[in-house]
Amino acid sequence: MSIKESSEAIFSESPGKIALRTLRRDKRSIISLSILGFIIAISLLAPLYAHFVAHTDPFASSLDATTKIGGKVVPVLQPSTTGLGLGVTPIGPTWNPSSYFLGADGQGRDVMARLLFGGRNTLLIGTLAGIICIVLALLIGVVAGYRKGWVDAILSRLLDVIWAFPVYLLAISLSVVLLTSGLKVGFVHLGPGSFALPILIIGVVYIPYVARPIRAQVLSLREREFVRAAVGIGAKDSTIIFKEILPNIIPSVLVFIPIIVALCMLTESALSFLSIGVQPPQASWGTIINDGLALLYTRPWVGIAPGLLIVLTAASLNLYGDAVRDALDPKTRSRGDA
Amino acid sequence: MISFIGRRFSAMVFVLVSISILVFLIFFATPGVDPAARIAGRNADQQTLMQVRASFELDKPLPVRYLSMMRHLFVARDLTSYVNRGAKVIPQLSQAIPATFSLVIGAAVIWLFFGVIFGVLAASSKRKWLDPTISFLGIVGISLPVFWLGEVVNLFTQSKFHSSIFSWVPPLGYVGLSVDPWQWFLHLLLPWLTLAVLYAGIYVRVLRSEILVVMSEDYIKTERAKGASEKRILYKHATRMSLITIVSLFGLDFGALVGGYALLTEVVFGIQGVGKLTFDSLQNFDLPVIMATVMYSSFFVVFMNAVVDVLYAVLDPRVRRA
Q: pLDDT tens across B121-143, in order?
């Protein structure tokens, strides 16, 4: 390792190192990574918040819970004052971190605690779906582009079919079918409430977005002189793929990661909003927005808060994606700093 | 050229047939899923299940059922709903189409207008703050979940400020263009804007980076060397070249949206369009309706894909041989 490093220092800096340095100095990457770090941290701390600060179970409905406002004990679900006065309205934000900071939802659960737990699920599903999508797309793209011929024909048609199947309709069809009964393939059985289902569904749906450009890139790399030279000296396919082709497509894959994770996260919340993603009593930002739909005009914060977090997270990921792209490909940088 | 179009459109038919088979298999052949139980409801007894199996022909082999469904959908055009026995699928679909088209066309006008203007501005402006500001707004645009944005819009226009500045906003829903053009416009204005935000964000970003890439091409340097003005280079060459990408992107997005991608906007604003129809039928496990809407949707996506490819081939002869 040390020999390699020193030899690089003598000759020149590798493009990867230059990109990394550019990225580290980019204000956008600093800002976006700090925001993401903050959101991930508070989501990871969700159980601690629920247990030690809010003293509540965010998954069990607590219709007769109470809280203190200005020293007075009040019920969390208050009798409706509007209309016939039959229903109940959950309590609004207390802005007091130790109890119902953002108010309660229709089942008397602490929205703030659910929001943090929901963040864990949304981030987890978005990230894992994004990784699955990129790994499979890389595999399909490289194999199709490198093998060409009938392998390429079959894989490309497969991508065409997924591509033409409207993303949400495909995701929704799969979710509706699988979420009620789960998936049984051989020994593997994924239960209806399993997160594996939304992760797989969302991951698969976006494969063509990544696999198509990778395949095109591999096709053109194959014809380049250095790959032909490797073929000429009799290098094995695996050597050519790992030593010659992969290093050249890694930059575009890196650019895709934050963008695809953001996309998967948005899709997860959309599916959960349509109540076919994360299943109750589990929460995600999408399900909380859905909970907030019925309370929109009386307790708007239930629906607004998770949406703000989604925007903040997705925007940070996209901003970071821009910074990565500019660091790797100077062409798209604006003229101001080029 | 004709053989290219021929190949492209036979590929299109292949994709459509595959999608119909895929939908069919998702619903009837997913391991562990019993369609009869889904149709009969959660707590159906054995007898009901048997009845359902017989009356929906679930006891026949898969290929027979697939062909029969396709024949009813495309040849006889009398496919009926599972849930609402007797209700024909095709009229249901054709009733939903105008609402979706109204929503998508209006939004498209808005996002193209803002996307192109701001995209060109971001790539070309001499003012240093303009590009980062527009790029930032673009990022916010693509990061907004459309269903949430719709909810927030509803909150402000239907509740918070409904009695003051938004008193002109009609209740949620859709009014046909032929019924009352002014009400049609008022009902759709906010859904248009909501849907357009995401796409305006995408188009600003794509156009900006396309123009920047084209600007670094050799022929632009040649133009500069010839003494062409920056304005001429920007509009006559860079923007024009980049618009090819925008046109093809637009083809795909328009196809996808008309085909049901506008589902979330339709759900939030209570517009009975194709996306809403599909979503409702998915929840009822109403396969005939789903089959019809998915076929209709993918037709638009695949068709616009093919049109874009052919347009590309017309513009760029190199593509034809590929």
A: 888 877 778 888 898 899 999 99
CB pairs under 8 A between A and B: 159
The predicted complex's ipTM stands at: 0.82
Taking each helix axis as running N to C, give the angle between helix A15-25 and helix A301-328, from 0 to 180 degrees, rounded to the nearest 10: 140
The rounded distance, in Å, linking the Cα atoms of B223 and B244 is 20
Asked if A118 reaches chain B (Cβ–Cβ under 8 Å), the answer is no
* DSSP class of B36: H
B227 conformational bin, left if phi > 0, alpha if psi -120 to 50, beta if neither: left
> Is residue A109 within 8 Å of A61, Cβ to Cβ?
yes
B143, B160, B294 member nearest A318 (Cβ) = B143
- Residues 47-66 of chain A with CB under 8 A from chain B are none
CA dihedral B87, B88, B94, B95 (to 10 degrees): -10
Query: Where would I find the H helices in A68-206?
Result: 111-147, 149-164, 167-181, 196-205
pLDDT at A37: 92
Q: Which residues of B touch A194 (CB under 8 A)?
A: none
- Residue A337: which pLDDT band, with cuts at 50, 70 and 90? very low
Question: Is the bond into A281 cis (omega within 30 degrees of 0)?
Answer: yes
